[in-house]
Design goal:
This protein is α+β, with helices and mostly antiparallel strands and 686 residues long. Among the domains are: 128 residues; 135 residues, no CATH class; 191 residues, no CATH class. The chain is 42% helix and 14% strand. The strands form 7 sheets. The chain has a 6-stranded mixed β-sheet, with no helix packed on it. It has a 3-stranded mixed β-sheet with strand order 1-7-6, with no helix packed on it. A hairpin with a 2-residue loop joins strand 21 and strand 22. Helix 1 packs across helix 2. The longest helix has 33 residues. The radius of gyration is 45 Å and the shape is elongated. The chain starts with 14 loop residues before the first strand and ends in a 6-residue tail after the last strand. It holds the Pfam family RPC5_C. One of its GO terms (cellular component) is RNA polymerase III complex. This is Polymerase (RNA) III (DNA directed) polypeptide E. InterPro entries: RNA_pol_III_Rpc5, RPC5_C.
Length: 686
């Protein structure tokens, strides 16, 4: 013994025994709402039951209805509310009076490894580990039963004819919904939910018990198991631990309990975490969560020093411009191979429906939900979700776009606005084909639209060439006037006796100085003077048309516009050289680039849109198959569908022996096969 312990001598030594007979059955009951001096030892216990896995206990104890503190009328009223006026075996109170009370337990702690019950006898301490520590509180489940009885009585009083109710139930439509695959994160949230825990608790059956009082003989017998049954010294192992180690075993240091953090929603991300992502992912994450946002607000959420041009480039990849504000694209919200959480509709169908909703907001501020649903034909829950992304309901006005039109952004970035408008034209053409509608059906009546004049491709080409020729003559006159003025002031050389030669305005790129039978002076005029009239296609537009037709050979006007919109969307910001390209100007560019319009005789009942019935084909590509393609075009100018045998016969009659490989090459370049017949590209029935 150390010298410091001499003033604290050992008075008595007590042997400690570990009793294990009740190690897995011993519980400590606590009654936190009742004073310690008021025990339940002398109260009659009517019943008891337990769920061992959950360590949940329920005990029914009787109430002294003869006590002066008991309100008899109140007890009868509670029994009447719970059980009703009729007697039944399932009644909670058989005496038609609240004569018992139920106690329900909750766990005071989940870790009882440091707790034990000890009994001291004859200088020996016998310790038994506790299985659980439970707190018993009064249960008020009888009030829930009374409320259910009240609702049942009200429903019975308000209910009508049962046969009529059955008929109405039979007439109701049944909506079938398919659950989408559950992710691991969603499964963890479901397991931790209150509803799941309640269901798991209800699955474990109750084990009914028999209660024995404190002074009962069975209780006295069970108390003997609190003592160690074997106290033979030969079985006791020698303690070889040091006092410090033994003390740490008796009182281990407190370990910090790891509290399981609840799984948060997948769409919650702090700004600190957000700024660790690449710029493109930052923009995508913000737009996916916010759905619609002005560009100024987006820049405000970016870190200081972020380049505005870079953000503009990123936002165009994940969002579309609507009324000067950015709305997240549908395929970002509904990725491929996913489905609706409400109805199980595939993502592809959801994207088409949502694109139609957003496109409508490019035309007007407010839309009607019923009108939207009647066209896209999706479940009401999905339609409502689309609208809630970008709009808010207004009284007598339907759904109004959430944000005011951002005019400042449109003025500051006209190239981006123009590129987005071209992109919307491509989306509109797809939607018109899918949902079978016309844009004019949705244009407000009070908006003034220019009157459309339909002309053939040859007429538009003639008008464009005449305008170009007039401009050329005007410029030629100005040039002659300048030359005459210079001739007065500048003395000619003696060796030059000839007159000034006029400017060569013939086209060297087309045979015989013409293109498809029309003078090609306007194209050459652009090359000589370094500029183009406002009404003539620009060189950049003609280059795009040439490259496109050399790749596809045959295109409808609708498909050409789609490819042009994709080309505009692929251009980087600030490098857009196309401005206000109308359908007429695009067709003029086609006819100026060795192409012709094929007048395909579509049937009267054809569902093809007007832009799909305008078919253009490359007439001269410079390869060995120009003649083959022209003979093919001639066949399709007489019928909108042709069989392969007719094509083979036509080519053999006009060009001699044509191999199968050559026929396959021409058909691959210009046609598509459908139901045993061949159609020009874009004209096959969908």
């Amino acid at each position: 013994m150390a010298s410091g312990d001499e003033d604290d001598p050992i008075i008595e030594e007590i042997d400690v025994y570990l009793a294990k007979s009740l190690a897995d059955k011993l519980y400590l009951f606590q009654y936190p709402v009742r004073p310690a001096i008021m025990t339940y030892d002398n109260v009659n216990h009517l019943a008891a039951k337990i769920k061992p896995k959950q360590q949940r206990v329920e005990v029914d104890v009787s109430m002294d209805t003869m006590s002066p503190n008991y309100c008899r009328s109140k007890g009868e009223q509670i029994a009447l509310n719970v059980d009703g006026a009729t007697y039944d075996e399932t009644n909670t109170y058989s005496a038609k009076m609240m004569d018992k009370q139920t106690f329900t337990s909750i766990q005071a702690t989940t870790n009882t490894s440091r707790y034990a019950a000890g009994v001291f006898r004859k200088g020996e301490l016998h310790v038994t580990p506790l299985t659980g520590i439970l707190q018993l509180r009064p249960s008020f489940s009888y009030l829930d039963k009374a409320d259910n009885k009240t609702r049942e009585r009200e429903a019975a009083n308000e209910g009508g004819d049962s046969s009529q109710d059955e008929a109405e139930e039979e007439a109701k439509a049944i909506t079938v919904r398919f659950a989408r695959p559950e992710s691991e994160q969603a499964r963890q949230r479901r397991i931790q939910s209150y509803e799941f825990l309640q269901r798991k608790q209800a699955e474990e059956p109750w084990v009914h018990l028999q209660y024995h009082g404190v002074k009962d003989g069975r209780s006295e017998h069970e108390k003997q198991y609190l003592f160690c049954q074997s106290v033979d010294a030969s079985e006791n192992s020698e303690l070889v631990k040091s006092p410090k180690e033994y003390l740490s075993m008796l009182m281990p240091p407190l370990a910090e309990e790891k509290v399981a953090k609840p799984v948060g929603p997948s769409n919650v991300l702090s700004m600190a975490q957000l700024r660790t992502l690449p710029l493109a992912e930052q923009v995508k994450t913000l737009m996916k969560n916010v759905k619609v946002m002005p560009f100024a607000n987006l820049m405000g959420l970016m870190a200081s020093g972020v380049d505005q041009i870079s953000v503009l480039r990123c936002i165009q990849q994940v969002a579309l411009l609507v009324q000067g504000n950015w709305v997240v694209k549908s395929d970002v919200l509904y990725p491929k191979n996913t489905c609706s959480a409400h109805s199980g509709v595939p993502a592809e169908v959801l994207c088409r429906g949502r694109d139609f909703v957003i496109w409508r907001f490019t035309l007007e501020r407010s839309v009607m939900r019923k009108e939207i649903a009647s066209i896209i034909k999706l479940p009401p829950e999905d339609v409502k979700e689309f609208l809630e992304h970008v709009a808010a309901p207004r009284v007598n006005r339907g759904w109004e776009f959430l944000l005011p039109t951002d005019v400042d952004f449109i003025k500051k970035h006209p190239d981006v606005a123009h590129r987005q408008s071209m992109l919307w034209l491509g989306i509109q053409s797809k939607l018109e084909k899918v949902f079978n509608f016309c844009k004019e059906d949705f244009i407000p009546k009070n908006s003034s639209q220019p009157e459309l004049v339909h002309m053939s491709g040859d007429q538009r080409l003639k008008m464009a060439l005449e305008r170009a020729k007039e401009t050329q003559l005007s410029l030629q006159k100005d040039l002659d006037a300048r030359r005459a003025e210079n001739a007065v002031r500048i003395k000619r050389e003696p060796t030059s006796d000839r007159e000034d030669e006029p400017m060569d305005t013939s086209s060297s790129s087309a045979p015989n100085g013409s293109l498809n039978g029309y003078p090609a002076s306007s194209h050459h005029f652009d090359q000589v003077n370094g500029g183009s009239p406002a009404s003539a296609p620009s060189p950049e537009l003609q280059d795009f048309v040439k490259n496109t037709f050399r790749k596809h050979f045959v295109l409808t006007l609708n498909e050409l516009k789609r490819l042009f919109n994709l080309h505009l969307a692929s251009l980087p910001p600030g490098q857009n050289v196309f401005h206000s390209i109308s359908d007429h100007l695009l067709q003029d560019a086609v006819l100026l680039c060795q192409c012709k319009q094929i007048l395909v005789p579509f049937p009267a009942q054809s569902k093809a849109a007007p832009d799909e019935q305008k078919v253009f084909a490359l007439w001269e590509s410079g390869d060995d198959f120009d003649n083959h393609r022209r003979q093919l075009y001639d066949l399709f100018s007489k019928s909108f569908r042709v069989r392969r045998s007719m094509i083979q016969l036509k080519l053999s009659q006009e060009l001699g022996d044509v191999s199968k490989t050559d026929v396959d090459r021409v058909l691959h370049d210009c046609c598509t096969s459908y139901a045993g017949c061949w159609y020009l590209k874009g004209t096959a029935p969908s």
